[in-house]
Specification:
- The chain is of the alpha/beta class and 409 residues long.
- The protein folds into two domains: 8-234, Rossmann fold; 241-391, Rossmann fold.
- Helix content is 43%, strand content 13%.
- The strands form two sheets. The protein has a seven-stranded parallel sheet with strand order 3-2-1-4-5-6-7.
- Helix 13 crosses helix 16.
- The longest helix is centred in the N-terminal third of the chain and has 19 residues, at 8-26.
- The chain is globular and about 65 Å long.
């Protein structure tokens, strides 16, 4: 399957980008800062170091996870993979200079990733020489310049070098908005929903075509994504249970439960469905309620530790990193995790997801019941840390990667 021919406008943009890129390789830094958009500036004369992958006889498997490190999961999976014998792993991320930052073994600025031929060439040489396995996140190019570089060509180059390649998807990079809209009543992709829906439809369709064309192993991070890649393998998200652990039990020592909602992206989480209900219950004096945005990952630890109840989301129908963090903290987690996602976890891991089910229609009733009789919700909250320890502390993720990395489980 070949890519559709590029339009005249697209080809003209390619020529313009190539000319600018060529100029940046010889331009002094002061000129670079004038030529490049402020969000993409970099020092063309002093590129960031290329990937450094340790090579020693004890580590015959050298894994690279790149280039997005979404929610810090690339770094977490790399550490999980290193639990397997003979494996050393590194992750590379494009540093978008956002408020929320996550650890990574290699960070490259957006401008350098997109424009610096010096960095791109050095990175390519290092990866092709030193890496044995690649988890390619979100079908994004490893070696920069996503507007011109065809990831298919990169995959061919990696395979010619004897490198094993798998595709790895996090969610909106492969979750088809149109298919989600068909099965999910409160989908964020419906009319008047997320303004990125049309763009995501194009991206996910392109990535789905790529999956079919390349015939590579595919990993997905959340159980709902089997709707989009039925043959994928589940690579569970990873959190540090000890980091999120709190000594204070939920619903202890308070007259009213403190309910929090901390959306990473309000339109996806369904904040518009959650806020009115919980604010109304707070106005009645039934609960205390905080809707919080803009927290760093460190601040999230404190927010979950202080909360009794965490309302995660009502639109997407699955659970991810945030819910796992709240479960690890022993909080009562209320969210919409649909029957398909719960069944996938049960069938693949033999576990029940300890999240109190709620929808836009039932959220108020669920919270009122919790306040009236907290015992069922507290029982689920008490099982949350054990669920995370078994499925989301990295051990299950290491096992999921074992076959791809040629290691015994």
């Amino acid at each position: 399957m070949s890519r559709p021919p590029r339009s005249v406008v697209e080809r003209a943009k390619d020529v313009a980008r190539a000319a600018l890129r060529a100029g940046l390789t010889i331009a002094p830094p002061a000129l670079v800062t004038r030529l490049v958009d402020p969000t993409q500036r970099f020092d063309a004369q002093h590129p960031s170091p290329a990937l450094h992958m340790p090579r020693d006889p004890e580590h015959d498997v050298r894994l690279l996870i790149a280039p997005t490190n979404s929610a810090g999961q690339g770094w977490a999976w790399a550490r999980a993979a290193e639990r397997l014998p003979g494996v050393v792993a590194r992750t590379m991320q494009i540093d978008m200079q956002r408020f929320q930052r996550f650890p990574a073994d290699q960070s490259v600025s957006r401008g350098e990733y997109r424009w610096s031929t010096r960095w791109q060439r050095a990175q390519r040489r290092s990866v092709l020489a030193d890496v044995t396995h690649v988890l390619l996140e979100s079908a994004s190019p490893l070696f920069g310049d996503p507007h011109r570089r065809d990831v298919r060509g990169e995959v061919r180059a990696l395979r010619r070098a004897g490198i094993h390649v798998a595709l790895l998807f996090h969610g909106s990079d492969i979750r088809s908005p149109s298919r989600h809209r068909e099965r999910a009543r409160w989908s964020p992709f419906g009319p008047g929903g997320w303004d990125q829906t049309a763009a995501l439809e194009r991206v996910t369709a392109e990535n789905a075509a790529l999956v079919r064309e390349l015939d590579l192993p595919v990993f997905v991070s959340t159980p709902d994504l089997f709707h989009d890649v039925a043959h994928a393998q589940w690579l569970p998200v990873v959190v540090d249970p000890q980091r999120w652990h709190t000594e204070r039990a939920a619903l202890v020592g308070r007259e009213r439960p403190l309910v929090v909602h901390i959306p990473s992206r309000s339109i996806v989480k369904g904040t518009d469905l959650i806020d009115p209900v919980l604010q109304r219950l707070a106005d009645e004096g039934l609960i205390d309620y905080r809707s919080i945005t803009g927290l760093s990952n460190d601040e999230m630890v404190g927010a979950y530790g202080e909360a009794d109840v965490v309302v995660d989301q009502l639109r997407i129908g699955t659970y991810g990193v945030a819910a796992c963090e709240a479960m690890a903290a022993g909080r009562v987690v209320i969210s919409h995790v649909d029957t398909d996602a719960r069944r996938e976890v049960r069938d693949r891991a033999g576990l029940e997801v300890p999240i109190v089910e709620a929808t836009a229609d039932t959220l108020e009733h669920v919270v009122r019941e919790l306040v009236s009789d907290p015992r069922p919700a507290l029982a689920l909250a008490a099982s949350g840390p054990a669920f995370v320890n078994e499925l989301h502390d990295g051990s299950a993720s290491a096992l999921a990667l074992a076959a791809f990395l040629g290691r015994s489980a």
